[in-house]
Amino acid sequence: MNEYVIYSGERFVVEWFYNEDGNSDAFTYFEELDRVQKQKFLHLVKRMGDAGKISDKTKFRNEGDKIYAFKPKPDRFLCFFFKGRKIIVTNAFEKKQDKLPKTEKNRSLERMKNYTKRLEEGNYYDQE
Predict the structure, then answer these.
(1) Measuring CA to CA, how many Å separate 119 from each of 44, 109, 111, 112?
(2) Which residues pair with 68 in a beta bridge?
(3) pLDDT digits (tens, 9 = 90+) for 57-91
């Protein structure tokens, strides 16, 4: 059974995206970070989950096309908002250039479509 929820706050529930095979490369990326980098990310997730916003664009930013980024330097965690007060973290990477790589944004967009489709079909979350 997958651990979807990263944090359940007063305003939002933040979750990892899992593909059809039950893998989450964003979660795998997170697991490989050192303790300090994990704490930076989790701090931002908690802030968003509880307060419902992060006004500092150096920490959370709208990347266009309904894709957003948690930005615990030097890492990026792309995500999207979903009905029911959910934020789904789709992919993660280390930022090595000024602009968001198109491949990473496209990966996030594809996963947003995948999540929506699988949720509508009733086969996204593990059946208990």
Answers:
(1) 26, 15, 12, 11
(2) 62, 79
(3) 999 999 999 999 999 999 999 999 999 999 999 99
Q: Are 106 and 90 in contact (CB under 8 A)?
A: no
Q: Where are the domains of the chain?
A: 5-120
Rounded to whole angstroms, the Cα distance separating 102 from 100 reads 6
| Strand, coil or helix: 3 | coil
For residue 86, the surrounding DSSP H or E stretch is strand 86-94
Contacts of 125 by beta carbon, 8 Å cutoff, 6+ apart: 4, 119
What pLDDT, on a 0 to 100 scale, did the predictor assign at position 28? 97
* Integer CA distances (angstroms), 73 to 17, 27, 36, 90, in order: 21, 17, 11, 18
Amino acid in the structure at residue 58: T
Q: Which two tokens stand for residue 5?
A: 């929820």
Answer yes or no: CATH 3.30.2310.20 is held by domain 5-120. Answer: yes
Does pLDDT of 128 surpass 90?
no
